[in-house]
Amino acid sequence: KGLLGLGLAGAPGNYEPLNGSGSYAPKPVGMSEETEAELRAEALLIEEPDSGVLLASGFGRHWPDARGVFLSADRRVRARVNEEDHLQIEVVEEGQDLSGAFA
């Protein structure tokens, strides 16, 4: 979460910690229920684990602290923090212009 903030500092967008997360000072209770429903509808929300294998590995430890979603203002850049990986970044671009997606 800290490195993501440094890497995206100044980028137009918003970091939304999971609802109930107390680890991000600017949003001490996490995202609103409205934002949570919106992200869930767009399949962008990090869902609480229910797999025995994931739970046994410690994946759900300290849930939901230190987990959240960053969305750029245009929603082209999406980052999930501490889902199954520490950081998952997606860049979404319509068409076949791969280099344009990273411009």
UniProtKB/TrEMBL annotation:
Chain residue ranges for the region called Disordered: 1-31
Keywords from the named record: ATP-binding, Kinase, Nucleotide-binding, Transferase
Gene3D superfamilies documented for this protein: Glutamine synthetase/guanido kinase, catalytic domain
InterPro entries per record: ATP-guanido_PTrfase, ATP-guanido_PTrfase_cat, Gln_synth/guanido_kin_cat_dom
GO molecular function annotation: ATP binding; creatine kinase activity
Biased composition (Gly residues): 1-10
PROSITE patterns: PHOSPHAGEN_KINASE_C
Record bears the keyword ATP-binding: yes
An example Gene Ontology CC term for this record: extracellular space
Residue ranges occupied by any Phosphagen kinase C-terminal domain in the UniProt entry: 1-103
Any one GO biological process: phosphocreatine biosynthetic process
Homology family: Belongs to the ATP:guanido phosphotransferase family.
UniProt-recorded name of the protein: Phosphagen kinase C-terminal domain-containing protein
